[in-house]
Design brief:
The chain is α/β, with parallel strands linked by helices. The protein contains 11 helices and 7 strands. Helix 1 crosses helix 10. Bound molecules: nicotinamide-adenine-dinucleotide (NAD). Nicotinamide-adenine-dinucleotide binds next to helix 1, strand 5 and helix 8.
């Protein structure tokens, strides 16, 4: 169902790799709600991914940008304003990657070059995106910037590895930059802390199947899907949430406030 919540709004959506990507489903929902956007992903992901299909479906243009490259981001922001015909109202940062996770290196046995690369891609890129937007004065007043995170920023999930630290930094950057963006440009900045979701990045985490079914059993409303996340993001891009900022918002079916559920008790209790 569409409510035209984003009619007349323009933005950039980072991170749509394939139809499972949270950014892909968000792009579809933003399109349904009347928003116009440029799609962006890393050059390598664009070769592997199916982003052109999404672009066609949503009437969007695609601009490659490695989100760790200030030069690429500068080009992306300038061209997006040109293509879309004005300053931007919304940004989705849906980017994450850990080489340690990908290559199965334990948290206690990090290869620090990989750790640094993961931090640059998963967290520092958010600062770079916002600094580029800020310096170019590319956001409209009352615009909205959202990044996606996971609860391992607050609590221990051993196999989430160095991504836990990256998410903690990402959430901190949202608050710190959100202050300046709010004070100077009336732009809000938030993170959505999403349930485990079966995507390329999600399934890369060791023991993901156990992870997702445990969260499902713990959450009174069950796990939030990628579509739930897309809908929440649409609400944060809309004018209905104008003074929500500097927040880390849990979209997780209640998981983050649970101690234990009956379903999990049944699993661990010997009868
Ligand atoms: N899937 C989950 O369980 C889950 C849960 C909570 C939060 N998240 C977060 O949601 C976001 C989106 O992930 P997803 O689950 O949709 O997986 P995904 O694999 O579909 O998306 C990750 C994206 O990051 C992009 N990316 C990687 N390196 C990049 C770079 N240098 N420059 C630009 N883009 C780059 C990839 O190409 C890909 O499109 C990530 O921040 C992830 O950590 C995912």
């Amino acid at each position: 169902m569409s409510y035209n919540l984003l009619k007349g709004k323009r933005g950039i959506i980072f991170g749509a790799l394939d139809p499972n990507s949270i950014a892909w489903i968000t792009a579809e929902r933003v399109h349904e709600e009347g928003g116009k956007f440029v799609l962006s992903n890393a050059p390598i992901a664009m070769r592997m991914g199916q982003i052109n299909e999404l672009a066609e479906k949503t009437g969007s243009q695609v601009i490659a940008a490695d989100a760790t490259s200030e030069e690429d981001l500068e080009n992306l922001v300038k061209k997006s304003v040109e293509i879309l015909g004005g300053k931007l109202d919304f940004i989705l940062h849906s980017i994450g990657m850990s080489i340690n996770v990908r290559k199965g290196r334990a948290y206690t046995d990090q290869k620090y070059d990989w750790t640094q690369k993961g931090t640059d891609v998963s967290a520092m890129s958010f600062h770079k995106v916002m600094q580029t937007l800020y310096k170019n004065n590319a956001m409209n007043e009352w615009g909205s910037i959202v990044a996606l995170t996971y609860m391992a920023a607050q609590r221990v999930f051993p196999d989430y590895n160095d991504m836990a630290d990256n998410k903690a930094l990402l959430e901190s950057i949202a608050r710190s930059f959100g202050y300046f963006f709010g004070r100077d440009k009336n732009v809000r900045v938030n993170t959505i802390s999403q349930s485990p979701t079966p995507t390329t990045a999600g399934k890369g985490v060791k023991g993901f199947d156990g992870f997702i079914s445990y969260a499902e059993k713990m959450s009174p409303l069950g796990n939030a899907t990628a579509l739930d996340c897309a809908n929440y993001t649409v609400s944060l891009f809309s004018d209905l949430t104008k003074r929500v900022t500097l927040q880390n918002l849990f979209n997780d079916g209640g998981f983050s406030n649970m101690g234990v559920s009956d379903a999990v008790m049944d699993m661990v209790t010997e009868n």
